[in-house]
Amino acid sequence: MSIIYNFALLVPRIGYFIASFFNTKAKAFITGRKGIFKKLEKQLSSNAAPVIWVHCASLGEFEQARPVIEKLKGEFTSHKILLTFFSPSGFEVRKTYDQADYIFYLPWDTNKNATRFINLVKPVLVIFIKYEFWFHYTTQLKKRNVPMFSVSSIFRNEQLFFKSYGGFYRNILKKFSHFFVQNDESIRLLKSIDIQNCTKAGDTRFDRVNEMVKRGDEISIVKKFKNNEKVMVIGSCWPEDLDVLIPFINENYYSIKFIIAPHEISESFINNLERALNSENVRYSRAGSKKVEDCQVMIIDNIGMLGRLYKYGEFAYVGGAFGKGLHNILEAACYGIPIFFGNANYQKFQEAVDLINRGGAFEVSDYLDFKHKYEMINMPQTFLLACEVTRQYVEENLGATEKVMVYCRKILKS
User: Fold this and answer.
1) pLDDT of residue 177
2) What is the SS3 string spanning 149-210?
């Protein structure tokens, strides 16, 4: 079965190589791994401190890893943190993250790479985030009796681990020392394949976004734009979301303001957005040249601000669910506001399902459905109820990081 696994990984490797000639992300994926072992040797050669290795697939998983990394960094000052990414969208954005001592791409999961990598790093603890289950890396770590944790993982019945023919993949899971999962269903599924070393900890992202809320950083231009009026913050919207949003904005801008943070901030996308809007709008980068309090729409033409924008909203719409998948709704949830998103692709996100069931979030199918649900939630009684539900849900789910840290301390202090 390992031969089939190796062949299956060979296909995307070839695909990335071909794509690297005309796709910038694929090129970063390939070039970022060139000479990686020499770079590792150079950086680690003078290191005598024990290494904690944390691996994330991409940027979303990094947000789950971040609170754990920062706790480890604060408590275990004599240790070094190695952070690895599989995807360029994680590495390129966080390659200067100051809480990790070393940041690298993860070499492809081959027996040769895994053996060489682990021999160089010599980790004393390894933390894989969410869906990261690599055969050769886990095999080599298990051979060396290195403790391995899976953090913020979530399992579903349709995954290969739980199929009659999924023995190879089940054996990968059985190499882990402990699973810190997000929900009861994951616990049930793991126990159904005789994995008992699991704890329902929740999602560490709650702790991360809650810290952001506590800091409460002010954005003066956005505060001036809000001008004590009602605002809907639209985060990470895609073209598919705009089919729902544009008619809604054009019909409602007289009674509510909008802050739009597109997923893509290219000039062409923003130009098309501006042309579609009937209301007075302003880009964040040009706000100094306008009387922003008189504008009805602000377009955010930068990256990295979204998490702080939700504090100015009474409502949130989070994009992505009409396409590949819903973007992070926890940043909005931590401010205790009702959240809307598309109905096509949100089911794999536990917090979205939970908040829909409780009445704090609302999936919409099209413009008319969005209009109807907004009008319903905009009524004072239902609005306050949705806010309280969302706020309470976040409070109930804080503390996942500390549950992970209890186990980390046992290993690192032994």
Assistant:
1) 97
2) EEEEECCCCCCHHHCCCCHHHHHHHCCCCEEEECCHHHHHHHHHCCCCCEEECCCCHHHHHH
For residue 123, what are its two tokens?
Answer: 């980790």
Report the relative pairing of strands 257-262 and 231-237 from DSSP bridges. parallel
Report the 10 Å Cβ neighbour count for 284: 21
Residues 270-300 pLDDT 10s: 999 999 999 999 999 999 888 999 999 999 9
Give 88-141 pLDDT, tens digit per residue.
988 988 999 999 999 999 999 999 999 999 999 999 999 999 999 999 999 999
Q: What is the mean pLDDT of residues 340-358?
A: 94
Look at residue 2 in the predicted model and tell me its pLDDT.
81
Backbone angles phi, psi at 13, to 5 degrees: -60, -45
Token pair belonging to 201: 């900890």
120, 37 contact by CB (below 8 A): yes
Q: Is 102 helix (H, G, I), strand (E, B) or coil?
A: strand
The three-point CA angle 22-25-30 to 5° equals: 85
Q: How far is CA 61 from the centre of its chain?
A: 5
Residue pair 221/301 in contact by the 8 Å Cβ criterion: no
- In this prediction, residue 190 carries a pLDDT of 98
Helix (H, G, I), strand (E, B) or coil at 105: strand
State how far the Cα of 301 lies from the Cα of 260, in Å rounded to an integer.
Answer: 9
3-state secondary structure of 373: helix
List the structure tokens of 54: 């944390």
287 alpha-carbon distance from chain centroid: 29
Cα–Cα distance measured from residue 117 to residue 115, given in angstroms and rounded to the nearest whole number: 6
With tokens 């009861």, the residue in question is 184
**CB-based burial, 360-384: b 16+ in 10 Å, e otherwise:** bbbbbeeeebbbebbeebbeeeebe
Reduced to 3 states, what is the DSSP secondary structure of residue 283?
strand
* Residue % of the chain over a pLDDT of 90: 80
> How far apart, in whole angstroms, are the C-alpha atoms of residue 73 and residue 304?
23
Phi, psi of 128 (to 5 degrees): -100, 135
pLDDT at residue 22, rounded to an integer: 87
pTM: 0.83
In the chain, what is the greatest distance between 2 CA atoms, to the nearest angstrom? 65
* Tokens coding 117: 């990598």
